[in-house]
Here is the input.
Amino acid sequence: MERTLAIIKPDAVERGLAGKILDRIEDNRLKIVALKMLHLSKGEAEGFYKVHSERPFFSSLTKYMSTSPVIVAVLNGEDAIKKWRDLMGATNPKDAAAGTIRKEFAIDIEKNSVHGSDSHESASFEIQYFFSNIEIF
Ligand code: ATP
Ligand code: MG
Here is the structure.
């Protein structure tokens, strides 16, 4: 079993897509073991995305991620990191495969509805960024 961090981003929470996205998680044998809604400050978004601090989109990305609340969750399951990334689809919804969350729901490459950890290392950093041990079941 493996854990990964999922975020339902502001564009999806604002459009009332959280339930549909959580359904897809549970329908694909990923178990929600922690869940909460947060309104990130710009600084908290910058800390979360610090690996991208040198990228040209960093300022816009962290501003967008702090515009309105997000839902953060820890998912547990077999091959959870890859499984959740596969359900999400490619970063740019134009490149995302049919049936993926980003293909169906994302607005553009930035407002792409969901986040998923991309490695064991990022999953452990990202999970502890939002949750303490006693909040994960
Ligand atoms: P995430 O980390 O959010 O799961 P990802 O791993 O598919 O997405 P990254 O390369 O890690 O993509 O980029 C992080 C986020 O930054 C993207 O999800 C998107 O919101 C934003 N982003 C990435 N590339 C661009 C870009 N070229 N222009 C604008 N925003 C971008
Ligand atoms: Mg990423």
